[in-house]
């Protein structure tokens, strides 16, 4: 979209220069042509299943079960492929020109920005990591008086509060240092650990200050209490003691501490610092707190009382700023009146540092965080990814922008009136019998509050944009153990089920509210867990048939054989093509598809079981955070590309069973082919087993080769071997009666 010359408020000029543009991806025509061809093949395959199931006579119950299972599996695969085409119909790429902003407006007319950072557990989310994120955002190339940082501490951690008090002092040196030397990496930990940087006396001085702060924080806890000698400021010590004395784990009052006030606190160069506000919301067992969505809504109301910026950035505590010019890119859209009218948020991709060379766990989520959002951007816009997202406050508040009485507006944020009102709106009873979380704010009702919030906003008519600059706007941490990766994915899947089986079902409610195409895209995500159906069936059923020399797929001489080959190669080929165009290596793509298979037998499957049990009132494991703490031994194995199977989790049992049965079925099938010379009958079964065996190579090494702490737990191996033998024996009895 070329921005025409307009007058937009004070400081703007006519004949405004171009701020942004968008263009369709060149592969769009190919995507549409291929979709038409592939759809014909899918319908042909489903016709074959219907014919075999309903027209041709079925000799026995076993044949009926096999035919029905294959039909259900292929029906799920067909739906997931069809819904994924919504991402491929009209993908777009955008580009911004932030250098043109100063030609149409002045710095003092930039929109104010409130930044929300949420943390909940100082042991899994170390406070120094949260501080590094906050410092990187405070150091934006943006007027400091326009920035307010809000930190939500749901863990109520004394250490977190103290760490931010120390960080506030360091910020007075760090911010002018970054701007004086035009440093891009404004996360101090990242900068000081970088191997290539220019050293100078000023650099070494700042680095020493940072290291001193780290040492102080690491040694500040003595028998669970903060040592007074480390809190040098009398006012901060008094505020801190008031907070800690009132805290109890089951119930604690709201704590709002203005650590930095942009109207009073200055850096060493004499410039005002951004606001830095710590919030620990009131919690009580008598009232639901709604996890992260609840914490964000408290920040939404508290910020409305204290600063009320029209732009809100939500940020994970481990996702730091990697580009100080990011807010300027956002302004390129928000200062365009044509774009602004129905724009709810601007989403940046999640990117990560610390990935090992081949990204063995597929933690980059290239499709989820980059490829698919570009596809959605051509329709109504991407979904909210939970971090790196700039909201317009109006979209979250609806018609009522604030809940501030007129006589309180523009009061100092430390005034008693402002603080009293902020405490009031952060109270655990405040949302009772209101539309918060249902019609306003971040939406309740699902563990994936980010996905659900954007879905509801787009159902209400709002749109979004995907901003994907060459330099990553944000970089975050990734889980380095397989169990953490799968646990995180399982939580997402349960949240998806909560949406699917609600009145806001993405297919029914979504198609009525947002149109069929966008509804299909959201349904693809909401139905993520049902991948477990075809993956589980295809990981066991053909292999058991192969062990018993029973054919369930077409022979090479049959025309249907080539249909299966086309469907498999077409799906994998297009997926590979899209990954390569996104700059992904072959090995990373291979690991991503391997993780898709692993997920189908673990987190997809177990989330389905857990949600089913929860639906009938059987208690299951509660919400848990993904750990951001790095174990040295695990980090070393991750860096070497070794999969981590050390946790004796039940999720690894079906995965190990599939690896075992596929290996034996492939070996026995290969022996028969070499012995009998008949390679036609069981060819597709052999190809499928061989592909799964290749994907399971890390599992075989974890069982039989490795002797480190990341090897497969003995109890998992024993249970899987017993269940595999039992399943093979039961299948031999069933197939012998066929």
Automatic annotation (TrEMBL):
UniProt KW Transport keyword: no
Source superkingdom: Eukaryota
Primary subcellular site in the record, as a coarse category: membrane
Subcellular location field: Endomembrane system
Keyword flag Membrane: yes
Keywords, alphabetical: Cell wall biogenesis/degradation, Glycosyltransferase, Membrane, Transferase, Transmembrane, Transmembrane helix
Regions crossing the membrane: 29-49, 61-84, 522-541, 561-584, 596-613, 651-674, 681-700, 712-735
A Pfam match: Cellulose_synt
Membrane topology of the entry: Multi-pass membrane protein
Gene3D superfamilies: Spore Coat Polysaccharide Biosynthesis Protein SpsA, Chain A
Name used for this protein in its record: Cellulose synthase-like protein G3
């Amino acid at each position: 979209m070329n921005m025409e010359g307009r007058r937009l408020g004070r400081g703007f000029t006519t004949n405004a220069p171009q701020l942004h543009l968008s263009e369709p991806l060149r592969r769009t025509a190919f995507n549409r042509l291929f979709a038409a061809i592939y759809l014909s093949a899918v319908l042909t395959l489903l016709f074959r299943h219907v014919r075999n199931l309903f027209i041709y006579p079925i000799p026995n119950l076993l044949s009926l079960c096999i035919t029905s299972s294959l039909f259900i599996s292929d029906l799920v695969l067909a739906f997931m492929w069809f819904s994924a085409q919504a991402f491929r119909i009209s993908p777009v790429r955008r580009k911004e020109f932030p250098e043109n902003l100063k030609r149409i407006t002045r710095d003092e007319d930039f929109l104010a920005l409130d930044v929300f950072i949420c943390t909940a557990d100082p042991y899994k989310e170390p406070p120094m990591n949260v501080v590094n994120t906050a410092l990187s955002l405070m150091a934006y190339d943006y007027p400091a008086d326009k920035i307010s940082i809000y930190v939500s501490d749901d863990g109520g951690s004394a250490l977190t509060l103290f760490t931010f008090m120390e960080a506030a002092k360091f910020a007075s040196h760090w911010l002018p240092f970054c701007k004086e030397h035009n440093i891009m990496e404004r996360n101090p930990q990242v900068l000081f650990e970088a191997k290539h940087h220019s050293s100078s006396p000023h650099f070494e001085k700042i680095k020493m200050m940072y290291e001193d702060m780290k040492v102080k924080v690491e040694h500040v806890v003595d028998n669970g209490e903060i040592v007074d000698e480390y809190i040098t400021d009398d006012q901060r010590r008094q505020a801190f003691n008031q907070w800690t004395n009132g805290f109890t784990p089951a119930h604690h009052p709201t704590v709002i501490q203005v650590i930095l006030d942009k109207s009073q606190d200055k850096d060493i160069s004499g410039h005002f610092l951004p606001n830095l506000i710590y919030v620990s919301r009131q919690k009580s067992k008598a009232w639901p707190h709604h996890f992260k969505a609840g914490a964000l809504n408290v920040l939404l109301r508290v910020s409305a009382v204290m600063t009320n910026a029209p732009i809100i950035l939500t940020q994970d505590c481990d996702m730091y700023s990697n580009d100080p010019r990011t807010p300027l890119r956002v302004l390129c859209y928000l200062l365009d009146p044509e774009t602004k009218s129905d724009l709810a948020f601007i989403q940046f991709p999640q990117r990560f540092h610390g990935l090992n060379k081949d990204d063995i766990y597929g933690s980059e989520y290239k499709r989820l965080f980059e490829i698919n959002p570009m596809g959605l951007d051509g329709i109504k816009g991407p979904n909210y990814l939970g971090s790196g997202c700039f909201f317009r406050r109006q979209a979250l508040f609806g018609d009522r922008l604030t809940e501030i009485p007129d006589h309180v507006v523009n009061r100092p944020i430390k005034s008693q009136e402002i603080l009293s009102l902020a405490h009031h709106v952060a109270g655990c009873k405040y949302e009772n019998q209101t539309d918060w979380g249902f019609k306003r704010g971040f939406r309740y009702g699902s563990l994936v509050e980010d996905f659900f919030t954007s879905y509801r906003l787009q159902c209400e008519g709002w749109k979004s944009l995907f901003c994907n600059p060459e330099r990553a706007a944000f970089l975050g941490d990734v889980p380095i153990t397989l169990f953490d990766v799968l646990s995180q994915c399982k939580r997402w899947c349960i949240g998806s089920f909560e949406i699917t089986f609600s009145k806001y079902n993405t297919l029914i409610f979504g198609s009525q509210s947002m149109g069929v195409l966008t509804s299909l895209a959201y349904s693809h995500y909401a139905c993520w867990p049902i991948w477990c159906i075809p993956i589980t069936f295809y990981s066991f059923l053909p292999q058991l048939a192969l062990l018993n020399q029973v054919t369930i797929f077409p022979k090479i001489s049959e025309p249907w054989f080539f249909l299966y080959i086309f469907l498999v190669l077409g799906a994998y080929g297009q997926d590979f093509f899209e990954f390569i165009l996104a700059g992904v290596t072959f090995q990373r793509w291979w690991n991503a598809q391997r993780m898709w298979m692993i997920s189908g037998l673990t987190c997809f499957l177990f989330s389905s079981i857990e949600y089913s049990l929860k639906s009938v009132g059987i208690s299951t494991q509660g919400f848990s955070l993904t750990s951001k703490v790095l174990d040295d031994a695990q980090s070393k194995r991750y860096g070497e590309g070794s999969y981590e199977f050390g946790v004796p989790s039940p999720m690894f049992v079906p995965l190990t069973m599939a690896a075992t049965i596929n290996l034996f079925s492939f070996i026995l099938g290969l022996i028969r082919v070499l012995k009998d010379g008949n390679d036609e009958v069981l060819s597709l079964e052999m190809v499928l087993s061989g592909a799964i065996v290749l994907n399971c190579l890390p599992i075989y090494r974890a069982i039989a080769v490795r002797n480190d702490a990341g090897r497969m737990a003995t109890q998992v191996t024993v249970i899987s071997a017993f269940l595999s033998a039992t399943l093979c024996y039961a299948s031999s009895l069933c197939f012998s009666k066929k």
